Predict the 3D structure of the following.
Amino acid sequence: MNSGTQKLSLKGEAGVIEALLDLPDAATAGVRGTVVIAHPHPLFGGTMQNKVVQTLARAFVQCGWRAVRFNFRGVGASAGVYDEGRGELTDMLAVVAQTAPADQPLAFAGFSFGAFVTSHALAQTWRTRSVDKVVLVGAAASRFLVAPLPPQTHEATLVLHGEQDDTVPLHSVMDWARPQSLPVTVIPGVAHFFHGQLPLLKSLVMRHLRA
């Protein structure tokens, strides 16, 4: 992604986890913390190189965060096979444990299936450490049981969804968010993969991170 991108080989329950670490520009004053970003569905072409995932990484890096993208089990060079979210949650928690020091700020982000996994990673991680920022894009609420978010994280959370998402209907995300009184930012005219609207996605995420 930039000159500060490093390849990582991490240890997971199923074996190696392939990952990339994107670092802020040297001119950035200090590093705010580490964000771990989860990609879309492994069985439908989702990888850490997905354009939405890369856009999330760029937004965090430009706001001073170290950004860790990784391939779920069975994707790219990551060992194992698809596990319907269970093993993928284990993968994400393993990445957090190995790349995000406990004494530094932590953030989570995920797109589609990755947002579903991220919701469960947040619920589990929150028991032992705080999470400073959360970004969920196109959360796959119509296809998976997205976890409710800890109330204490709502203020730090940005939920983004396209009005014309034909993969995950907007109403399914609203049905998930409504019982939690969790705000959802709806982007008019945008479909699931944000074609032609990635700059807007990046801008909205950066605005949230700088708030």
